[in-house]
Amino acid sequence: MASVFRSEEMSLMQLFLQVEAAYCCVAELGDLGLVQFRDLNANVNSFQRKFVNEVRRCESLERILRFLENEMEDVVEIVKLETYPETPLPREMIDMETVLEKLEAELLEANQNQQTLKQNFLELMELKHLLKKTQDFFEVRDLSSHRDRERMIPFERLLWRACRGNIYLRYTEMDTPLEDPVTVGTQVKKNVFIIFYQGEQLKQKIKKICDGFRATVYPCPESATERREMLDGVNTRIEDLNTVITQTESHRQRLLHEAAANMWSWEIKVKKIKAIYHILNCCNIDVTQQCVIAEIWFPVADAGRIKRALHQGMERSGSTITPILTTIHTRMAPPTFNRTNKFTAGFQNIVDAYGVGNYREMNPAPYTIITFPFLFAVMFGDCGHGAVMLGFALWMVINEESLLAQKSTNEIWNTFFSGRYLILLMGIFSMYTGFIYNDCFSKSFNIFGSSWHIIPMFKNNTWNKEVLLDNTVLQLDPAVPGVYSGNPYPFGIDPIWNIASNKLTFLNSYKMKMSVVIGIVHMIFGVILSLFNHIYFKKYINIILQFIPEMIFIICLFGYLVFMIIFKWCHFDVHSSQSAPSILIHFINMFLFNYSDASNAPLYLHQKEVQSFLVIFALIAVPWMLLIKPFILRANHQKAQRMVRDVGHARGFRVAKAKLRHQTSRSFNFGDTFVHQAIHTIEYCLGCISNTASYLRLWALSLAHAQLSEVLWTMVMHNGLNNSSWVGLIVVFIIFAAFAVLTVAILLVMEGLSAFLHALRLHWVEFQNKFYVGAGYKFSPFSFKHIIDGTAED
User: Fold this and answer.
1) Does position 137 have pLDDT exceeding 50, yes or no?
2) What is the rounded CA–CA span in Å between residue 774 and residue 630?
3) Cα(first)–Cα(last) distance of the chain, in Å?
4) Do the Cβ atoms of 301 and 2 come closer than 8 Å?
């Protein structure tokens, strides 16, 4: 369970592999996905590394595979297997190269032949249409041609001007469009035209203009007999070409289907091979060229699995030399690795988005699983909206396997889907807080019956018909027997507040105080978590000189504010609420040491003494945090230096001297230490004030959501339900559709996103800054699964 609350314990080891076994061992580690390789050749150009030629060969294979995939697009479906193929051996790469290069050559040849045949077919079809359209003119020479319809008018205008009107042009549209052989599948609409002219000079001009407009020119026989004979010959050639084109396309389709059966497997294998050689390029080769040396980070808990994977790689390669692992003692900060599953991954991503935690420091993610959706729900609390959100999340969770199989590339959808369990909890907590607020689409439930009753006001003759007519607003008097039952509503806000004119005043007061209580408890919990960091890292001086004064400061001031709020809630009931003092005035007077305000009665006996003691104790905590720690650190540093000098004069203590020098090797600057401590003290003391105020956003967002929900109901749905005619039966469906769209767009999406961002802020700043440094770097293991899925980090 320790790995849930802290990152995994990591180990840095040097790995020695025989050159012949290196490939297979790295492949096994890639399948395992628990090892991060350090780049030992960071200063070496990527083109000068050992296995650069193998990487280039893989890139060449990827180019061929992309070509094949483009050829198969919308034509042949690529077959995908349920499991990934095994990593091929280096010698299998040669066979794969041979197969793919041969397949590429055959496809290129088939494509070229097909394009040539289709070009011939196009020309014959054009000639066929030309011969059909040509009229029998005599004693005049002519040129016949084909031209795209879009440029026919400019072509005609240019011919007329260049030849000074000494030609006769006649054209007509072709009945059927023709396929362009270059851009496969594109239909081209053309015109057939014939030009009559006289003289060689006009012939040369006409040919140049036709070439400029890319018109296809054909000589047209003058006699009808020759045209019929030519047309018969063209028809025969078209039939032969059709047969050849069909056979060529059939051969091409056969090649694509054969490739499609192995296409997915080839892509996975090439990705694996390329990834392995990238890793080998990060390793060193010894001077004998017989040993590969790598440095790897891995979780200590998985050492056994890693050794078994290396042994399997050795056996697969046929090597007899066992891989050697030796521990490296280093002062480098290890990477941070927090194990997650599909449920906890979303919450861990929220934490890591702000900053990856330092190695082995407390991980906020387990607590965020509860606190994040809860704080979101405090701002978003509504049973109806929470139920809609819960339904959406349940749909994603139930159908997650089929949705994952689709592998959508839509970034917005992927963001929602990856946070499906977060949305699920947000929906559940929103329904819970909705019941607390007794709010469902701005309306209240009356499940247990209100604790307030109106009838006793009439029985007591306090209210009567004249009072009802003369007053628009009436107030219930709890002093009248039977008006208040004596017990509050069993769960949540009493539904009678939904019709009260001072509803907003009451809810504002309640939610504001509740936000302060939740915020201060959340911050105190963050300070308590810092204690576990100090204990784990054995920084006991921080416990006495940082944690204890921090707790004293926040509890004496803000913890006492929470006490006053809860005490007032519990001590004053409906009968004594009019005499309840103001907490705000008491809290301000606490810092001013002003207790002479007769209009604001004390909450309890000896309040003056208690508050004076708490303020003085909180003030003592400030210099406690600020001054003592820098001086103690300086004294410890001076003591260590004296010990280095004393030990240096004695013989036989070289090891102790070296250790002491290592401990004091880092330079100590008293000025920097004091300034750093002063910044921390000021930031903490002012932060307690500003962070407490920041938690009031819980009240503000909750108020905004409730008001928007009420406005939407009043302005839209209420109008549809008020119409009692037969037309209203139809109108209510239209009104409900508009109400549903506006609810989803405004209250669920916009307000939900706003509450989500504010909950992020409260966790990242107000909560995590009490104990979380977040200056580490993430563990990025070499994993085939991440590489193939495209989730591997650079």
Assistant:
1) no
2) 24
3) 30
4) no
* 568 closest CA partner among 603, 601, 608: 603
Give the three-class secondary structure for 188.
strand
Q: Are strands 168-173 and 178-179 parallel, antiparallel or unpaired?
A: unpaired
Q: For residues 487 and 148, which has the higher predicted lDDT (pLDDT)?
A: 487
Residue 145 forms beta bridges with which residues?
193, 217
Taking only the tens place, the pLDDT of each residue in 200-209 is 888 888 888 8
Span 405-430, mean pLDDT? 92
Per-residue DSSP letter, 85 = P
User: Is 705 in contact with 747 (CB distance < 8 Å)?
Assistant: yes
Contacts of residue 532, Cβ cutoff 8 Å, sequence gap at least 6: 362
If one counts every other C-beta atom within 10 angstroms of the C-beta of residue 374, the result is 19
Is residue 714 within 8 Å of 736, Cβ to Cβ? no
Which residues pair with residue 148 across a beta bridge?
190
Cβ–Cβ under 8 Å, residues 196 and 141: yes
Q: Which residues contact 108 (CB under 8 A, 6 or more apart)?
A: none
What pLDDT, on the 0 to 100 scale, is given for residue 140? 40
Amino acid, res. 585: I
- Residues 349-366, mean pLDDT to the nearest whole number: 94
Asked if residue 2 has pLDDT above 60, the reply is: no
pLDDT tens by residue, 6-39: 999 999 999 999 999 999 999 999 999 999 999 9
> Alpha-carbon distance 45 to 47, whole Å?
5
At position 448, the amino acid (one-letter code) is F
Domains belonging to the chain, first-starting first, are: 1-40+282-337 (3.30.70.120), 41-117+236-278 (no CATH), 135-219 (3.30.70.3450), 341-445+699-777 (no CATH), 539-695 (no CATH)
pLDDT of amino acid 649: 53
600 vs 558: which has the higher pLDDT: 558
Burial-class residue 789 by CB neighbours within 10 Å (0-12, 13-18, 19+).
exposed
Contact 276/26 with Cβ under 8 angstroms?
yes
Q: Which of 627, 570, 556 is nearest to 603 (CA)?
A: 570
Euclidean distance between CA atoms 282 and 620, whole angstroms: 56
Does residue 505 contact residue 475 with C-beta atoms inside 8 Å?
Answer: no
Distance of alpha carbon 698 from alpha carbon 768, whole angstroms: 17
Of 582, 581, 518, 524, the residue nearest 551 (C-alpha):
524
- Chain segment 432-447, per-residue pLDDT in tens: 999 999 999 988 988 8
pLDDT at residue 651, rounded to an integer? 46
Q: Does residue 407 carry a pLDDT above 70?
A: yes
Question: Mapping DSSP to helix (H, G, I), strand (E, B) and coil, where does residue 778 land?
Answer: strand
**pLDDT tens, 561-593?**
999 999 999 888 887 887 888 898 989 989 988
Residue 287 token pair: 């001077």
Mean pLDDT, residues 181-197 taken together: 69
Does the predicted TM-score (pTM) go above 0.70? yes
The C-alpha atoms of residue 372 and residue 350 are separated, in whole angstroms, by 10
Rama region for 628: left / alpha / beta (φ>0; ψ in -120 to 50; rest): alpha
Q: Identify the H or E element spanning 169.
A: strand 168-173
**What mean pLDDT is predicted for residues 456-461?**
83
Structure tokens at 139: 């004693």
Query: Is pLDDT above 70 for 558?
Result: yes
104, two tokens:
């590429």
In angstroms, the CA 577 to CA 562 distance is 19
In contact, 81 and 262? CB cutoff 8 Å: no
Which of these, 676, 673, 682, 672, lies nearest to 622 by C-alpha position?
A: 682
